[in-house]
Write a structure and sequence with these properties.
Layout lengths: L19 H17 L14 E6 L5 H12 L3 E6 L11 H10 L4 E6 L4 H8 L4 E6 L5 H15 L7 E5 L6 H12 L3 E5 L9 H5 L2 E2 L3 H6 L3 E4 L15 H8 L3 H4 L7 E3 L12 H4 L6 H28 L10
Parallel strand pairs: 1-2, 1-3, 3-4, 5-6, 5-8, 6-7, 8-9
This protein binds phosphoric acid mono(formamide)ester (CP).
Length: about 325
């Protein structure tokens, strides 16, 4: 089957818009690409002759490098520019920057920006695919996709009834929002835990999740715990007395891990702050799948670039994307 012929989006802006069927198309594509990553020669000719531009207006290690590696694995040229190295720092608008990137013959634009809504806005300005690599506290769709894919690898493809606890700074987290969308669409049960100032009570009714301020209860029945960093860069007020007090109340340590089921896994989107949201020995323990998540990020970004570029080529040139299985 040519998976890409069933995909009908040029952009990936968020998980909120996606149907469960679309998530399935992405996961099937990720599976195919993940297999190619263990080949001695990883390069596939699927985006040969294309150029992907990564415009990163916020710092990034994992997402930026994974998008670069994904584009290179698909044989695309890839250019990465940071905000302070672009003419945005000289007063150019984001719109003009994107139009100029398109005029310079880029075939896809990956953007990380501190303003929620920037990728959606640009997707309406340019004809080339726009991929959201994280926009403010709104969404980080490829992170949620790699998280869900990691859960599927561990617990099987059907996540119905799986219990996932997201612990930490939910209020300012785009990772939390994208994961809540993805996990609930896939049938998992989501519990949110953390300081009451950082876990909005209205998320229960807005997203159909459980909010639980008793950490022991939030951990006891979880199949997976997803830890979040305190996102100081987006906080405009003090939400708890000190980092030390956050750690003593909510940090994942040996005692709190003992409250988990024996087969529960520990996840984190990174960057991790060792000794704050989790102890170092927990981050490096056998329960931790943090680095597996990072590796899955390459295949996820390959899938997203392939699907969105394939659809853009189809609408612009009537060209059917090549099936991965043919390679
Ligand atoms: N998880 C994540 O987005 O990490 P980076 O900020 O390093 O890309």
């Amino acid at each position: 089957m040519n998976i890409a012929s069933h995909w009908t989006r040029k952009d990936l802006i968020g998980i909120e818009d996606l149907s469960a069927d679309e998530l399935e198309i992405i996961f099937n594509t990720v599976e195919s690409f993940k297999k190619t990553l263990s080949r001695s020669v990883k390069k596939l000719p699927l985006l040969q002759g294309k150029t992907v531009v990564n415009l990163f207006m916020e710092p990034s290690t994992r997402t930026r490098i994974a998008f670069e590696m994904a584009a290179k694995n698909l044989s695309a040229e890839v250019l990465t520019i940071s905000g302070d190295a672009s003419s945005l720092s000289k007063g150019e608008t984001l719109r003009d920057t994107a139009l100029n990137i398109q005029a310079l013959a880029a075939d896809a634009l990956v953007i990380r920006h501190s303003s929620a809504g920037s990728p959606l806005y640009l997707s309406k300005v340019v004809d080339i695919p726009v991929i959201n690599a994280g926009d403010g506290a709104h969404e980080h769709p490829t992170q949620a996709l790699l998280d869900a894919f990691t859960l599927r690898e561990r617990f099987g493809k059907d996540l119905t009834g799986l219990r996932v606890t997201i612990l930490g700074d939910i209020l300012f987290s785009r990772v939390a929002r994208s994961n809540i969308w993805a996990l609930t669409k896939l049938g998992a049960s989501v519990t949110l835990a953390g300081p009451s100032t950082l876990v909005p009570p209205n998320f229960e009714s807005a997203f159909g999740v459980r909010v639980c301020h008793n950490l022991r209860d939030a951990l006891a029945d979880a199949d997976a715990v997803m830890l979040l960093r305190i996102q100081h860069e987006r906080q405009t007020a003090t939400h708890f007395p000190s980092l030390g007090e956050y750690t003593s109340s909510f940090g994942l340590n040996k005692l709190r891990v003992s409250w988990l089921k024996t087969d529960a896994i520990i996840m984190h989107p990174g960057p991790i702050n060792r000794g704050v949201e989790l102890d170092s020995e927990i981050a490096d323990s056998a329960r931790s799948v943090i680095l597996q998540q990072v590796t899955n990020g390459i295949a996820v970004r390959m899938a997203v670039l392939y699907l969105c570029s394939g659809f853009a080529d189809f609408t612009r040139f009537g060209k059917q994307p090549q099936a991965i299985e043919e390679l």
